[in-house]
Amino acid sequence: MKIKPAVSDSLRMGAGAAAMLVLVLVVLHYQSQRSPARQIELKARKIDLVERMRYSLAAASEAEKSAVLAVTDQDSLAFADQARTATAEVEHLRTTLGEILSVRTGQNEKELLSRFSECFTEYQRIDHDLLGLAVRNTNIKAFALAFGPAAEAAKEMDAALSRFLAKHATSPQKMLLLAAGAQAAALRLETRLAPHIAEQSDSRMDEMEALMAKDDREVHAALDSLAAQPDLRADSDLATARTSYARFGELRAQILSLSRENTNVRSLAISLDQKRKAMAVCQDALHALQQEIAGEPTPYAPTNPRRLGAESSASR
Question: 140-261 has which fold?
Answer without folding.
Answer: de novo design (two linked rop proteins) (1.20.1440)
